[in-house]
Design brief:
By secondary structure, the protein is α/β, with parallel strands linked by helices. The chain has one domain: Rossmann fold, CATH 3.40.50. It contains six helices and seven strands, in the order βαβαβαβαβαββα.
Length: 175
């Protein structure tokens, strides 16, 4: 990891989460990808490929993978939530005990919760007061090469710095 790199945990090793983890790791960040299936984590660590979702895409050797969700949360400054929407509430409940004031949450899961019609950011906020005012959500609005990110938090300077670094990462890939 470069001296300016971020410690990022990506939650969800489907095609979307794996693609995000690949992009973030390729930009010099320390990235750990949470995998629900042990075989997926093993393949990422040993073969540098997610054979279940992106079998033809080589992943950076620097990309870490683990089935220990709480370990990834404890060891990351930024959490990128990219699980399927129907698993979001379960994941929010599991990580709640490990969330601190230092965490930034970037929610990149699409959709709504079927039974409550809640947005993903609403689910995280409902599950823990620690998530309130600490959520970075991508509003799924992309125009030309701009990705609009809305930031919520108490320390504006820290959040501005994080958003600046995230914009740098995403802009390298034409987003």
């Amino acid at each position: 990891m470069g001296s300016d790199g971020l410690k990022i945990g990506v939650i969800g090793a489907g095609a979307w989460g794996t693609a995000l983890a690949r992009m973030l790791a390729s930009s010099g960040n320390s990235v750990q990808l949470w995998c629900h299936e042990p075989e997926t984590a093993k393949n990422i660590l040993q073969k540098h490929v997610n054979t279940s979702f992106l079998p033809d895409i080589l992943l950076p050797e620097s990309l870490g993978a683990s089935t220990d969700l709480l370990e990834i949360v404890r060891n990351s400054r930024i959490l990128v939530a990219a699980p399927p929407s129907h698993f979001t509430r379960e994941i929010a409940k599991k990580i709640r005990p490990e969330i601190t004031a230092e965490h930034i949450l970037l929610i990149l899961s699409k959709g709504i919760e079927q039974h409550s019609l809640a947005l993903m950011s609403e689910i995280f906020a409902e599950e823990s007061s620690e998530f309130q005012n600490k959520i970075v959500t991508e509003k799924q609005v992309v125009l030309a090469t701009s990705l609009y990110i809305y930031v919520y938090g108490k320390d504006k300077e820290k959040l501005d710095d994080i958003v600046y670094k995230l914009r740098e990462v995403f802009s390298k890939f034409g987003v």
